[in-house]
């Protein structure tokens, strides 16, 4: 049996699924914390379940919740992890304005619960801890590349909660000498990205519009700029942080920023429908250059109470110390996401797809 055992909170999410595959391929025993839900929430882990029977590796999921410190303590005591990756979070910025207290409970106090569970079990010298911190901490008030030394200015309940997570991780490192590191990760996407984040919302809509299942894609702020990378590259960076002799905090980013508008244009380009824009502000529309049909429209319901307009990271420290660099380029990411959703749509019964589309309708303001 491997002596490297990882516990991943948030294993059912985008990053959790990539990280689980990454660690299993390196011989880790992997345990994951999974929330109870009334319907199956392990779709992203299906391939691992399938491979487990053939691969002979050790992979287990355990029910629990970041709001339940008893479970967290018991789980750590029972699984004796050598590395803990705290990826669990209410991770949607717009939704955090609707659920600020819950977001703080999971993202801020949840991180404390996990760290304190390690300490109360006297395992602080045996565990390496990774905290999923975020570029949202910066708040987008500067157009300079953001690094580990840039001051924070969180602009959402999510970012404020993550600010607590960041500092409590630093505090446990300084107070108890724990090997605890923050990865300050800029946006990273993939075909496994949650459907209500803008990139996946776009790739799904483009695939559905191509098949005639949707007529128009409604978006909020088209000018928002993000430093978008691929989740596969970023989970490797998380792991590199826990492999260092000394714990520290690192920015992972590509060093390139693109607007939501650019993402949309490239995504429609993938299906051979280039766009032309007309109108201004909330009246702006993206028309199909060939047919003249409106394919993209602005809906102010998707504007946020406080927007983060611009995020661009400076990953120099990660490159110098960890030897980490992103490998997957922006264009490749967009093409992969659109093509994955086209393929997904091909194997999804139309009725089911329409159901999924409708199911999101009442949540539109939060997508
Ligand atoms: P996802 O939203 O895809 O995944 C979040 C995970 O947390 C899911 O497994 C979810 O479970 C779980 N979770 C949510 N609430 C609870 C709870 N109360 N108890 C236990 N588990 C819970 O996020 P990503 O994979 O994209 O991100 C991973 C982490 O990295 C998050 O902390 C996020 O805030 C942070 N981050 C992400 C970035 C990105 O661009 N992706 C950038 C910077 C930071 P369920 O599946 O049941 O919903
Ligand atoms: P973000 O991701 O808030 O950066 O947080 P999201 O994809 O939700 O938004 C990116 C930008 O796009 C603008 N936008 C829209 N966003 C959504 N979701 N839906 C829309 O219709 C839409 N139209 C425009 C947003 O206003 C925003 O400016 C993600 C999450 O993964 C966090 O957990 C993580 O910490 C950060 O990335 C880094």
Automatic annotation (TrEMBL):
SUPFAM superfamilies: NAD(P)-binding Rossmann-fold domains. The keyword Protein transport does not apply. It is an enzyme of class 4 (lyase). CDD domains: GDP_MD_SDR_e. GO terms for biological process: 'de novo' GDP-L-fucose biosynthetic process. HAMAP family: GDP_Man_dehydratase. This is GDP-mannose 4,6-dehydratase. It comes from Nitrospirillum viridazoti CBAmc.
């Amino acid at each position: 049996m491997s002596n490297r055992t990882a516990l991943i909170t948030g294993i059912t999410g985008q990053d959790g699924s990539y990280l689980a595959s990454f660690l299993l391929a390196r011989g880790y025993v992997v345990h994951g914390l999974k929330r109870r839900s009334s319907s199956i929430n392990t779709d992203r882990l299906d391939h691992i379940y399938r491979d487990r029977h053939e691969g002979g590796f050790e992979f287990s999921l355990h029910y629990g919740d970041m709001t339940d410190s008893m479970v967290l303590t018991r789980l750590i005591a029972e699984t004796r992890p050598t590395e803990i990756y705290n990826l669990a979070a209410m991770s949607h910025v717009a939704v955090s304005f609707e659920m600020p207290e819950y977001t703080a409970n999971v993202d801020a106090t949840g991180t404390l619960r996990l760290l304190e569970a390690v300490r109360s079990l006297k395992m602080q010298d045996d565990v390496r801890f990774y905290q999923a911190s975020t570029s949202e901490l910066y708040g987008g008030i500067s157009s300079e590349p953001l690094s580990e030394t840039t001051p924070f200015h969180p602009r959402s309940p999510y970012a404020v909660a993550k600010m607590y997570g960041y500092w409590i991780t630093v505090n446990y490192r300084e107070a108890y000498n724990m090997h605890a590191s923050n990865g300050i990760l800029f946006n990273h996407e993939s075909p496994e990205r949650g459907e209500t984040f803008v990139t996946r919302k776009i790739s799904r809509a483009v695939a559905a519009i191509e098949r005639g299942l949707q007529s128009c894609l409604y978006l909020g702020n088209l000018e928002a700029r993000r430093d978008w990378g691929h989740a596969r590259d970023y989970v490797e960076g998380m792991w590199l942080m826990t492999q260092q002799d000394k714990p520290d905090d690192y920015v992972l980013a590509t060093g390139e920023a693109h607007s939501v508008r650019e993402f949309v244009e490239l995504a429609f380009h993938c299906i051979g429908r280039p766009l032309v824009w007309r109108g201004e502000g909330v009246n702006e529309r993206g028309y199909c250059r060939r047919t003249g049909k409106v394919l993209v429209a602005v809906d102010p319901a998707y504007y946020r109470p406080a927007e983060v307009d611009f995020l661009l990271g400076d990953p120099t420290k990660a490159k110098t110390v960890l030897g980490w660099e992103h490998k997957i380029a922006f264009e490749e990411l967009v093409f992969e996401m659109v093509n994955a959703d086209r393929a997904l749509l091909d194997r999804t019964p139309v009725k089911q797809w329409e159901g999924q589309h409708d199911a999101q309708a009442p949540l539109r303001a939060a997508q």
